[in-house]
Amino acid sequence: MLELSEINVAYGRAQILRDLSLTVNAGEILCLLGRNGAGKTTTMKAIMGLLPLMSGRITLDGQTISELPAHKVAGTGIGYIPQGRRLFADLTVAQNLEIGLMVRNSGGAVRDGVLDLFPRLRERLHQRAETLSGGEQQMLATARALCLEPRVLLLDEPTEGLQPSMIEAIRQVIVVMRDRGVAILLVEQRIDAILSVADRVAFIENGRNLETLPADALRADHAILERHLGV
Amino acid sequence: MDFGPYLMLASLEGAVTAAVLALTAVGLSLVFGVMRVVNVAHGEFFMLGAVLAWWMTSLIGGHPALGFAVALIVVPVLVGLLAAAADVTILKRIAYDPERTIVATIGILYILQQVTLMTYGPDARPVEPPFNTRLALPWVEFSDGRPQLYWPWGLSTTSYKLGVIAAASVVLIGVWIVMARTRIGLVMRATQMDRDMALAFGIPVEKVYGLVFGLGAGLAAMAAVLIVPIQQAHYLMGGDPLLLSFIVVIIGGLGSLPGTVVAAILIGLSDGIISVFFSPTLAKILATLLVALVLVFRPQGLFGVRRA
User: Fold this and answer.
1) Predicted ipTM?
2) Mutate which of A41, A42, A71 to test chain B, going by most B C-beta atoms within 10 A?
3) Does A86 touch chain B (CB under 8 A)?
4) Under DSSP, is residue B116 helix (H, G, I), strand (E, B) or coil?
5) Number of other CB atoms surrounding residue B277 within 10 Å
6) CA-based Rg of chain B, rounded to a whole angstrom?
7) For residue B192, how many other CB atoms are within 10 A of its CB?
């Protein structure tokens, strides 16, 4: 469904991604693992069109999205949940969701469906986003992305700084979205938090592919993790 | 005349200054807030508004109110379109780089000023106010221990000056409604808070920038159309509004619209009062001193929020 073919991306003069290729299928969770600075967040930004490609291409169901201007990428059905949440801090919960709904002109039914997944947000609709707790902010960031009825979800460290009950809540939503056929690309530092839900795991190092394995293989053999991540 | 009536007269003059300044400064504040562009050419859009208002009213003729009404609506739109075109052709090309936009808007400043000098000429030209009735104002005095109204000689204003204050207030409320209650306002605020996330959620940031730059210039032009029956149009008239707008925006807090309005009232009123009792130069000195103090003791401005 979402396919990155040999993309090269640089921040200024520093090249971050080198001939990186990934495929995420519908109804699958692909987990991107790598050390700090391996290029995980850069991969997400490149998909969203926030960083230009030097070469290579990114396609979604055959449509080349890497040729679109950045503001058209979300409209193809890619929901982005960035690292650090990046909510519109001064806007209310309802307004943050409104921004998500505007992407594909989704109506009230979509909004209700999303709020059913996060009942806590329904109680806080008129509260400003920056006054929410960390867990609620992560819920809002996720809900904002779900408001555009995504075919692909990009989650960058969704469990960072959350308590275990919140991590569990986020994890359940991810699984629900997978079961609805959404392709999910997940970046996570805490391997134990996601290994149980991942279908496949792609290791990257210095912006290059190392190997991509079924998650079952990792669960069976922890030595692979130690080899690639040094943990 | 006693001190009291003088103070009232000075405050009314100050209120007119404040009303026009608030409009101009809100335009500058919007552009800085959303686009992070320091628009040095803002005063020239103001000047262009005044000059075009003169041109349009002299073109239309007839009753002064007719030409003025057309100018009040058409001129801000024209200036806004010109600014939006400048945004697309110049600022977008230099990727809104902070240093380069300052140099580029200085260039726009000189182009607008010199083109106006070459076409409109060096004269100051008046525009006839659409309505201008003299209104005598009452004052209270105590005689035999009871308050009594009387009309001191020379204490008066004109209906047009009150009209300027009312019109500016209406436009400012309009801007507030657009920013707080409409979808386009929501999009502008989201762009202001996080440009990359706005892009990632399908907001056409470049179009928003063009719109905001046009809106900012349009507000300056509208302020100028309102003031030109009092002040006359001249190709160098953009300097003072630019300086005062910057003072107001810094005192109010960069990018904070309520702060900008409060600071405009503060600076406008004190400018009017100090100019009447002492001298206009002292008013500018004190305003600039206030900016220095704000920058030292509260760099984010009176109403600004310190961003992490």
Assistant:
1) 0.92
2) A71
3) yes
4) helix
5) 13
6) 20
7) 21
- List residues in chain B touching A: CB distance below 8 A: 183, 186-187, 189-190, 193-194, 196-205
**Is there a domain that residue B53 lies in?**
yes
Q: What residues form DSSP beta bridges with A209? A: A204
Mean pLDDT, chain A, whole residue set: 91
Please compute Rg for chain A using Cα positions.
17
Residues constituting chain B: 308
What angle is formed at CA B236 by the lines to CA B106 and CA B67, rounded to 5 degrees?
115
Nearest-by-CA chain B residue for A44: B200
**Contact residues on chain A for B193, CB-CB shorter than 8 A:** 88-91
Q: Kindly report the nearest CA distance between residue A91 and chain B, in angstroms.
A: 8
Could you give the number of structural domains in chain B?
1
Chain B residues near residue A90 by CB distance under 8 angstroms: 189, 193
**What is the domain extent for residue B59?**
16-237
Inter-chain CB proximity B200 and A102 less than 8 Å: no
- Measure CB to CB from residue A71 to each of B186, B189, B199 and give the nearest one: B199
Alpha-carbon distance of B47 to B234, in angstroms, equals 7
Question: What share of chain B in percent tops pLDDT 70?
Answer: 98
Which of A50, A74, A90 shows the shortest C-beta gap to B202?
Answer: A74
Query: Chain B within 8 Å of A150 (Cβ-Cβ)?
Result: no
Q: How many CB atoms lie within 10 A of CB B150?
A: 11
Residue in B264, B303, B270 with CA at minimum distance from that of residue B285: B270
Identify whether B197 is part of a domain.
yes
Q: Is residue B7 part of a domain?
A: no
Shortest CA distance from A96: residue in chain B? B190
Q: What's the token pair of residue B261?
A: 């309005």
- Phi-psi group of B123: left, alpha or beta (phi > 0 → left; psi -120 to 50 → alpha; rest → beta): beta
What sign for the dihedral angle of Cα B164, B165, B168, B173?
Answer: negative
Q: Is residue B275 part of a domain?
A: no
Q: Is A12 left (phi over 0), alpha (psi -120 to 50) or beta?
A: left
pLDDT tens-digit profile, chain B (308 residues): 578 888 888 899 999 999 999 999 999 999 999 999 999 999 999 999 999 999 999 998 888 899 999 999 999 999 999 999 999 999 999 999 999 999 999 999 999 999 999 999 999 999 999 998 888 888 888 877 788 888 877 788 899 999 999 999 999 999 999 999 999 999 999 999 999 999 999 999 999 999 999 999 999 999 999 999 999 999 999 999 999 999 999 999 877 889 999 999 999 999 888 988 888 889 889 988 999 999 899 888 888 776 54
Cβ of B202 within 8 Å of Cβ of A82? The answer is: no
Mark out the alpha helices in chain A (DSSP H runs): 40-47, 70-73, 93-103, 108-117, 119-122, 134-146, 164-179, 191-194, 215-220, 223-229
- What are the residue ranges spanned by the domains of chain A? 87-149
The pLDDT assigned to B201 comes to 96
